[in-house]
Amino acid sequence: MLKKGERTRQSILDVSSALASQNGLESLSIGGLAAATGLSKSGLFAHFGSKEELQLATVDHAASIFVREVVEPALSAPRGVARIWALLDGFLDYLERGVFAGGCFFATTAAEFKNRPGPVRDRITEQLARWRSYLERAVEQAQELGELGRDADARRVAFELNAFVQNAESQFELFGDARVFADAREAVRERLESLRELRAARGA
Amino acid sequence: MLKKGERTRQSILDVSSALASQNGLESLSIGGLAAATGLSKSGLFAHFGSKEELQLATVDHAASIFVREVVEPALSAPRGVARIWALLDGFLDYLERGVFAGGCFFATTAAEFKNRPGPVRDRITEQLARWRSYLERAVEQAQELGELGRDADARRVAFELNAFVQNAESQFELFGDARVFADAREAVRERLESLRELRAARGA
DNA sequence: CGCAGAATAGAACGCGCGTGCTTTTCTTGT
DNA sequence: ACAAGAAAAGCACGCGCGTTCTATTCTGCG
Which of A38, B55, B113, B124 is the most buried (most CB within 10 A)? Predict the structure, then answer.
């Protein structure tokens, strides 16, 4: 069985990642987090040693949640268009299920740290770069399998598809209109369809 | 000539909107802003009366800059596809020119306030809703003029086009790769083209 | 069970924050 | 040029922050 300290730590990070997805990592105060978890300020603090370490641990924790909820399920889908779809649909699903209280953890924190160089920013961008590369790789594989036309640049296709789901997130958080999820899915579906047709046209 | 107070106020807001575009409206501290403008804390404070009023004034100031730099030029373009393009290309231009030091002011502050109800959040979303409605209206006009097919939902088309340019902003701020601007322009161009072809196909 | 050591609590610190009050300096209209 | 009033500065306040040190309580192994 896990030791007590580790269990406490995990429960702190569950709360902190939820809180940070709403209001960012900076407004995570030690006192506030202590109150939210029922610990004392110093008791909580001892788990991390500094606020920056708390932020880094929170980012890592959120990353492991994201991988478990979105990436791993999608990577078990078959290579090709199916996997592209699994990644994007899975991402929208994760937003709709409200895995984090304030939308996508990384959308919030990336905007917050885009102009604050340092280890926290680095850790966040690392995760975003990984996500981008999963998407791009999935597009390449679909091309290699002949499911999508080879003439489109995989990076650009990934950019466009990612744009749809990211925009769904920000629009939903701001305006609360759930139609954007359907919009995003339709946009993705149509775009993938158009890349298939392109292949067909060339192949003919 | 403008009175002294008003000139000072404007120069404060120039600085505060630039700063807020980088690190958000919450981390705008009265003391820090005073130092950045060469005023005393209390001297600066007297212009606004509270931090929230400073934030609101900063949002309004940023909005007027955005309108001057992006919206007004685009609205002087002829109705139809030309105006859609002027809005989106103008937006990308505004990012490339670095009108605000930290990218788009509203991208930063919207993410920051998406989960903080109150007048500041309201003021921000108001601007974003306006931008969205400009885009959507431009798409509708292009349809009315017969430049774009009528079967596509204008709201969804606006959603997709906006997604491209918004994603360009966030990717650029995070990774500093200016290729995303070309990616976004190409994506917009292609999408508009596909809606034109749709019309042609139907019309034939 | 009992004790070593981990886990948590408690109290205190220096600091920067937003804000209010009083005083000084500068602007502007006559 | 001078007075009225706007603009800015100076100073002090209470508060919550991150952090440290010490004391207490709890946990799990022999």
Answer: B124
